[in-house]
Amino acid sequence: MPGYQPFDETYEQLIERPSAAYRAAVGPPVNRTPEAFEELLTRLRHFRDDYPNMAFWQMIDYKTLDISHSEGDLEVFGHKLTSVKDFFRQIHPDYVMPFLRWRTAAYNLIFKQEMVINPMEAAYRIPLPLQVLDGQYFWFYMNSTIVQVDAEGRIVTNMQTFYREGKWSERNLRPMEANIQIRNIANNDFDDQLISQLSLQIIDEFTDAELGLLALYAAGKKTEEVLREKGWSRHTLHEYNANLLRKAKTLFVYDFRSARDFAGYCIEKGFIRLKN
Fold it and tell me: Which of 188, 214, 240 is the last residue of a domain?
């Protein structure tokens, strides 16, 4: 979280205030009858029979940010989660901002006017380290699906299901990435589009000089070539490398071996459109 400020302040700054206008405008659901919604809840209450690998699930009311229904959270965390704020408390602090960036990028893509998909057919998937009952962090794979929308297409209810994976460790990190799966579509380019959406958010995190340096590294320029082209001292180059690695760690929660390694990752994944 930014500067590791108190959690309540961070939550208000990143979630409550930015979402206030949207939440105030959310109307009643129009796409699913109360009977159909209750039928879905009934199936989920028996999730261990139908989905034995699922650890827990929760239904989010977007207007109130309450967790209106859930199962399995008591066993995982030792207490019921009653609000989105409760859920965010379980996320490892380093992952809150990256998670929010990915989520924003995903929903910006899903709700693009020119998209021909039904938002209810799209599942947003991302791994998250959550703190469990014994205080340790474990990886959980979260699947987020829109369940209800209002007459204007705003999200009314969102379902999140979680599957526990291995133990999270600082010695075994992986770059944080998400993807979108569309029901009944096996192959699609939505992941590439999702990365493009994310790149629009993170490009401003880098200066022109930093982007230029990443481009030189991506082009395979050796250190001496970089120093000549930039007209920098080795000390200046070292400072730029350190800044790039610091930003890379904040954005992807991963210790890249070097700024050159980070540049290769950007090129391979397409996260940043580097300048020529």
Answer: 188
